[in-house]
Amino acid sequence: MARPNPGSLRATVRAVGIGGHLLFGALIVLGLALWRTIGIGSINNTRPIIVRWWFQRLTPMLGLKIRVQGYSAKHALLVANHISWLDVPVLGSIAPINFLSKSEVRRWPMIGWMSAQIGTLFIKRGGNQTADLIARIAEQVRERQAVAIFPEGTTSDGHQLRRFHPRLLAAAQQPGIDVQPVAIRYGSNHSPDLIAPFIDDDTLIGHLWRVLCQPQTEVEVHFLEIIAGANMDRRTLAANCESQIAQALGITVAADRSNARRRAGEEKRR
């Protein structure tokens, strides 16, 4: 008789626990919605604390071992590199943080609904909503909340940093809003994790299963030096964040493809 695969057995046990935790989270979200509806009081300050508590219990179920360097600003625009959907529970377990996420997440079963209810902002690729999002991000930070964005615009394998899109950093150019770069790495300097990156045509369920099969997934999070965004333009601010994160991770920043295409066009016209 064949022995059960230890990884599959581990993943099954974890998946059952995560399913129960998701249902519990849905009940919490419903409770918060009821609280808001009947007007007991404001939940803006309470909600992030409850969400962090929920993430703190989710991350061990995912097999995540998190090491943190530095301290998260309590109310700032957090600018992080993006490797996986795991980045959200990782950061959310460290501090009370709201997130800006791609609109596709809004359609994920249960997770999308819960994300919307806890204050996540969604951005549609190519959408005409930048001005509204910038205003909402700035409003949340002014309400003494931290908001995390992933300005690479997509996930990467973590071996190289993609260029940051500067448009959403416009929120940081308003008075009183600080920016804190955040560097995220899965694995370590000597052995990067090959399972954690959520890239290419991977599916959420397939990726989750592979993560759960692993005995443990190590994550390093570096909260870096705070920047006063009002003192510089968006492109300079984006470049400053890129530089800090790339240096902390010991990786390079990818070439600007738009500049490369422009230079190629100039060469052809000569």
TrEMBL record:
Concerning SMART domains, the annotation shows: PlsC (SM00563)
PANTHER family in the record: LYSOPHOSPHATIDYLCHOLINE ACYLTRANSFERASE, PHOSPHOLIPID ACYLTRANSFERASE
Q: Does the keyword Membrane apply?
A: yes
Q: Which regions span the lipid bilayer?
A: 12-35
High-level lineage = Bacteria, Pseudomonadati, Pseudomonadota, Gammaproteobacteria, Chromatiales
Q: Which Pfam families match?
A: Acyltransferase
**What Gene Ontology terms describe what this protein does at the molecular function level?**
acyltransferase activity
Q: Supply the source organism for this entry.
A: Lamprobacter modestohalophilus
- Kindly list any coiled-coil regions of this protein: none
InterPro entries membership: Plipid/glycerol_acylTrfase
Q: Which UniProt keywords apply?
A: Acyltransferase, Lipid metabolism, Membrane, Transferase, Transmembrane, Transmembrane helix
Give the UniProt entry's GO cellular component terms. Answer: membrane
Q: Where is the Phospholipid/glycerol acyltransferase domain?
A: 76-187
**Top-level taxonomic group:** Bacteria
Provide the protein name: Phospholipid/glycerol acyltransferase domain-containing protein
List GO BP terms, alphabetically: lipid metabolic process
Protein's cellular compartments:
Membrane
